[in-house]
Design a protein that fits this description.
Layout lengths: L4 E5 L5 E3 L3 H12 L16 E3 H12 L4 E5 L1 H15 L10 H7 L3 E2 L4 H7 L7 H14 L4
Parallel strand pairs: 1-4, 2-5
Antiparallel strand pairs: 2-3
Helix pairs in contact: 2-6, 3-4
């Protein structure tokens, strides 16, 4: 996004559950201190499911840059991963994308339901998408990564 591109994997919309680390940690603490949660498994996540298009639009707004949206066919993601892994053989640095990450990227849904956590110990997402993206981008900038 900071370079003016928004890559979109596949030809149809993909969906994801997202969570800000502040909400995640708060959810962990709530689960750890809840007697009802003992021995249980929970998803701690956003209550809303986001499309990558929406995430991109919010990111563009927060970064303050227009980005050209480019759709990359799923086969293209695997081709990029193959090239990346090949050149990674000659480098000591980790590759940007590999086959494992490519398999993750082409999935239509990376979503979960946190309603059990809400029911059992009152967890609800407090940090919305725009605030979470803003906090994340500010952190990246403070580390010199953007």
């Amino acid at each position: 996004m900071s370079k003016g591109l928004q890559p979109m994997v596949g030809m149809k919309e993909k969906f994801v559950s997202l969570i800000h680390v502040g909400d995640l940690v708060r959810g962990f603490v709530m689960a750890a201190t809840s007697a009802k949660a003992s021995g249980q498994t929970y998803f701690i996540s956003s209550s809303q499911i986001y499309g990558w298009k929406e995430v991109g639009e919010v990111s563009r707004k927060v970064i303050g840059k227009n980005a050209f949206r480019i759709k990359i066919p799923e086969a293209g993601v695997f081709a990029i991963a193959a090239v990346s892994e090949f050149f990674g053989l000659f480098s000591r640095k980790p590759v940007l994308i590999n086959f494992e990450k490519a398999r993750d990227m082409v999935q239509n849904y990376w979503t979960c339901d946190s309603s059990k956590a809400q029911r059992d110990f009152g967890y609800v997402q407090e940090i919305g998408l725009e605030e979470g993206v803003r906090n994340t981008i500010e952190w990246y900038r403070s580390k010199g990564w953007l």
